Amino acid sequence: MSLMQMGGVAMIPPAAGILGDWFGGWFSDHLMSRGVSLTAARKVNLVGGMLIATSVAFAGFTHSAVWCVILLAICTFGLQSAGCIVWALPSHVAPPNSASMVAGLQGAVSNTAGIVGPIITGIIVQITHSFVSALVVSGLCCLLGAALYQFGLGKIEPISLVKTSNANQPKDVQL
C-alpha cells in the first residue's frame, strides 16, 4: 500500500471501534430494559466482545490486505464493545462517593497493558521475525479475557465496606 492508501485504511479499525462503543453500550442497556439482570447484561458484552476480538489471531494468516483490515476492524469492534462496559463497571461496584477513585485505579492498572503489550510484541517479533505469533498471542489474550470475565467476575453489585469492630479495642474504664 502507498502511504496515502495506508492513511485511509488505517482509519477503518478505529471507526469500527467507535461503532463497537456505541453498539456495546446500547445493547447492554437494551438487555437491561428487557428485564435482563445487570450482571448478565454486562457480561454478555464483556465476554462476547472479547470473543469477537479473538479475530485478531487470524489477521496474521491472511495474505490479503483487505481481509487483514477487516479482521482488525472486527477485533477493534469487539474490544470496544467490551471496553464500554469495563468503564461502566466502576459506577456499579464502587462504594458511595468512590466511583472516580475506582475508575482511576482501573485505568492505571489497565494502562499497564499499554506499556507491556508493545514490549512483548517487540520481543515476539524479534524472536520470530514475524507478526503472526504476536497476533496469535493477542488473540489468546482476548480469549483469556473472555474466560476471566465469564468465570472470574461474580455478581455485579456495590462493594461493601466492612467497618472494623471495636471489640478488640480497649474500653474506657472509669475509676
From TrEMBL:
Q: Where are the transmembrane segments?
A: 6-23, 44-63, 69-89, 101-125, 131-151
Q: Which SUPFAM superfamilies match?
A: MFS general substrate transporter
Q: Which UniProt keywords apply?
A: Membrane, Transmembrane, Transmembrane helix, Transport
Main location group: membrane
Q: Where is the Major facilitator superfamily (MFS) profile domain?
A: 1-157
Top-level taxon in the UniProt lineage: Bacteria
- Where does the UniProt annotation locate this protein? Cell membrane
> What is its membrane topology?
Multi-pass membrane protein
Give the matching Pfam families. MFS_1
List, alphabetically, the InterPro entries matched: MFS (IPR011701), MFS_dom (IPR020846), MFS_Na/Anion_cotransporter (IPR050382), MFS_trans_sf (IPR036259)
Q: What is this protein called?
A: MFS transporter
Classification of source organism? Bacteria, Bacillati, Bacillota, Bacilli, Bacillales
